């Protein structure tokens, strides 16, 4: 069996409960779920049939003919410390006790095959995503060690685990103009870096202010009489550069409502991103 260990450090507060619903911890199912999510996000060129087959081959399925996943995930960490913080830092509201930044976590992947593919998927989801509450607004970001975090490096990861439908234009990764999705779901459309901040609290406050100012169903909503439930199609993670400064990585996903008559207001999405950039 092949093994690959990726050492990480928590960059922003992480609020994620364990199996008992109370103890703060990062568990393998959360990591595996995020790996599935970002693998699907960069494979919008696949038909629904191919997407399901390839995803099942990589991550397993309840179908007895396919069986369980080939990947095993083990997490090791020091005793994780907590801090006092706010889930809405721009308002100093909703007091919580999340896992503190600067905590070391090791994630070990084990598989009889495709270990490099799994490693690439995990690195991508660590860079672009997050875990726990408010993860799409900068919380729960983990930075992998020994991985270069530049636009070119993210592009290379996406290419290795997905398609060749992306290109680098200036300081961002975008879908090529001739890209045609096989069906509508939250596939990845763009990745761009934002401006640096001196600390993570300043950046989370900035993201929170933007989220509050441009509150609209196109940026995520709970189910109501007029709208579908929608996880935000704009995903903001936080990384730390070699100079010790913090910067956002903004990933734009396709806005996919269940109701085909619902149309997103892209102006709200663009204004939200511009306020963080």
From TrEMBL:
UniProt xrefs under InterPro entries: CRISPR-assoc_prot_TM1795, RAMP_III_fam
CRISPR type III-associated protein domain sequence ranges: 7-143
Entry's Gene Ontology BP terms: defense response to virus
Keyword Signal: no
UniProt keywords, alphabetically: Antiviral defense
This protein's record includes keyword Iron: no
Name used for this protein in its record: CRISPR type III-associated protein domain-containing protein
Organism this protein belongs to: Methanosarcina mazei
């Amino acid at each position: 069996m092949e093994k690959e260990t990726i050492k990480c450090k928590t960059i922003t507060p992480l609020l994620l409960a364990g199996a008992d619903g109370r103890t703060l911890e990062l568990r393998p199912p959360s990591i595996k779920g995020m790996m599935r999510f970002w693998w699907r996000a960069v494979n919008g060129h696949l038909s629904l049939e191919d997407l399901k087959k390839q995803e099942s081959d990589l991550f397993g399925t309840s179908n007895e003919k396919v069986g369980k996943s080939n990947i095993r995930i083990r997490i090791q960490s020091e005793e994780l410390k907590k801090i006092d913080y706010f889930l809405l830092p721009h308002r100093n509201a909703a007091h919580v006790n999340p896992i503190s930044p600067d905590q070391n976590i090791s994630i070990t992947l084990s598989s009889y095959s495709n270990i490099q593919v799994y490693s690439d998927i995990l690195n991508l989801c660590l860079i672009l995503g997050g875990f726990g509450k408010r993860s799409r607004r900068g919380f729960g970001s983990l930075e992998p060690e020994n991985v270069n975090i530049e636009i070119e490096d993210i592009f290379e990861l996406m290419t290795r685990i997905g398609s060749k439908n992306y290109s680098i234009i200036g300081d961002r990764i975008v879908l090529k103009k001739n890209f045609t999705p096989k069906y509508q779901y939250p596939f990845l459309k763009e990745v761009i870096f934002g401006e640096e901040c001196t600390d993570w609290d300043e950046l989370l406050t900035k993201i929170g202010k933007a989220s509050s100012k441009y509150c609209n169903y196109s940026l995520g909503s709970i189910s109501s009489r007029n709208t579908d439930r929608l996880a935000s199609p704009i995903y903001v993670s936080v990384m730390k550069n070699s100079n010790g400064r913090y910067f956002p990585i903004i990933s734009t996903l396709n806005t996919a409502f269940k109701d085909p008559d619902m149309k997103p207001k892209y102006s709200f999405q663009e204004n939200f991103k511009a306020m963080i950039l």
